[in-house]
């Protein structure tokens, strides 16, 4: 029988997803939980709530706290942090490339590197050149990866991911869902979500 | 020289303030930090953001997660929890009574008891009878306390608290502010706020 698993739903424009992406693999290994990376787009979900940009831009006092909070949390975790400009950046292409990469074993490492480029290195993840450089750094054939990312089938796959996120009741990122359907929202809940996923299931 | 202190800003209608109120005194004692209870009203602050009720009601998928999250966190903390009906309840009278009580040494205990009545016992904190019962349970002269709460000076004091919260950039509750002005939002940040408050200040 397969061990416990946790779905990790993230959007590359999401600030707290950076922290979760940097932390999840070692924590999941410790908890003996398999993680499934699930990129999606928050944009359509925010739009359905009447927001046309990040709520951190719509509510400036909340945004001010978020940047400071992120800075403090990153310092406590020993993670580099630099506030991206502009914010948010379109995560569409990066999410498409990730989906293509998850078929090919480099999707997770690529995801972590994209978050680092955006939130630690001040690079523009909405620019294909940045993604190409990241792919090359991972020894991935960038041209093939981008071609696969931009195929109709892969574009449809990302739309399906985002619809699935909506169906699951996701309203922000990162979010974590156990196989039993338990939903946890936010980097702050990563440890709790892993512990929940790892505990014995009824009937097993 | 006085030791470090932390301001604890809360609204009795705030779900996560229940958890913080139940936890803050023992944690602050461990951290050697003095806590100052600062009741205020979120209503005017939400209104300034264009919300006429709790964002958890305005965004139902977010609200659904919040209730489940609260239930899980309370279970982990060994705190009783029962979803209040209706939600939110007016916190105006309870906040006024608290301010009167903070002058008289029973304000903190009263606050914790009001949160417990609302979020653990299914009682209506917007009803004077509930507050009277809580006061009697604390051996406080309920009539004098309510008279003091409803004095013009005390009403003005609550308005001033709420204006001060707005001036400080508070946008939700609970919030914690160190003497150096560092703002932490949310029950999830209580430990971090205490640690920040406790660390040596530059120049001291």
Structure description:
The structure is a homodimer of 204-residue chains. Chain A is α+β, with helices and mostly antiparallel strands. Chain A has one domain: 3-Layer(aba) Sandwich (Glutaredoxin), CATH 3.40.30. Chain A contains 10 helices and 4 strands. A 4-stranded mixed beta sheet of chain A has the order 2-1-3-4, sandwiched between helices. In chain A, strand 3 and strand 4 form a beta hairpin. The A-B interface holds A 49, 59, 61-62, 64-65, 68-69, 72, 76, 169-172, 183-185, 188-189, 192, 196 and B 49, 59, 61-62, 64-65, 68-69, 72, 76, 169-172, 183-185, 188-189, 192.
- Note poorly predicted spans of chain A: none
Rounded to an integer in angstroms, the radius of gyration calculated over CA atoms of chain A is 17 Å
Biggest interface goes to: A-B, 21 and 20 residues
Main sheet summary of chain A: 4 strands, mixed
Task: Determine the CATH superfamily of chain A.
Answer: Glutaredoxin
What quaternary form is this?
homodimer
Assign the structural class of chain A, choosing from mainly alpha, mainly beta, alpha/beta, alpha+beta, or little secondary structure: alpha+beta
Number of strands of chain A: 4
Query: Count of helices of chain A?
Result: 10
At the first level of CATH, what is the class of chain A? Answer: Alpha Beta
> What are the secondary-structure elements of chain A, in order, as H or E?
EHEHHHHHHHHEEH
Shape of chain A: globular
Percent of residues in β-strands of chain A: 5-15%
Number of domains of chain A: 1
Give, in spatial order, the strands making up the sheet with the most strands of chain A.
Answer: 2-1-3-4
> Ends of chain A: how far apart?
10 Å
* Residue share in helix of chain A: 40-55%
The CATH architecture category of chain A equals 3-Layer(aba) Sandwich
Q: What's the average pLDDT of chain A?
A: 95
């Amino acid at each position: 029988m397969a061990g416990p698993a946790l779905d990790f739903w993230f959007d590359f424009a999401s600030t707290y997803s950076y922290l979760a992406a940097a932390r999840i693999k070692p924590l999941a290994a410790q908890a003996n939980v398999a993680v499934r990376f699930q990129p999606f787009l928050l944009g359509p979900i925010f739009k359905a709530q009447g927001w046309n940009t990040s709520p951190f831009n719509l509510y400036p006092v909340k945004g001010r706290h978020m940047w400071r909070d992120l800075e403090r949390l990153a310092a406590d975790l020993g993670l580099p942090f630099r506030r991206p400009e502009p914010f948010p950046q379109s995560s569409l292409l990066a999410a498409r490339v990730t989906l293509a990469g998850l078929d090919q074993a480099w999707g997770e490492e690529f995801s972590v590197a994209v978050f680092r480029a955006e939130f630690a290195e001040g690079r523009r993840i909405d620019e294909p050149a940045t993604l190409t450089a990241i792919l090359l750094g991972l020894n991935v054939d960038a041209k093939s990866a981008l071609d696969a990312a931009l195929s109709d089938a892969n574009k449809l796959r990302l739309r399906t991911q985002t619809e699935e996120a909506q169906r699951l009741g996701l309203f922000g990122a990162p979010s974590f869902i156990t196989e039993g359907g338990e939903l946890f929202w936010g980097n702050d809940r990563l440890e709790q979500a892993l512990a929940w996923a790892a505990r014995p299931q009824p009937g097993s």
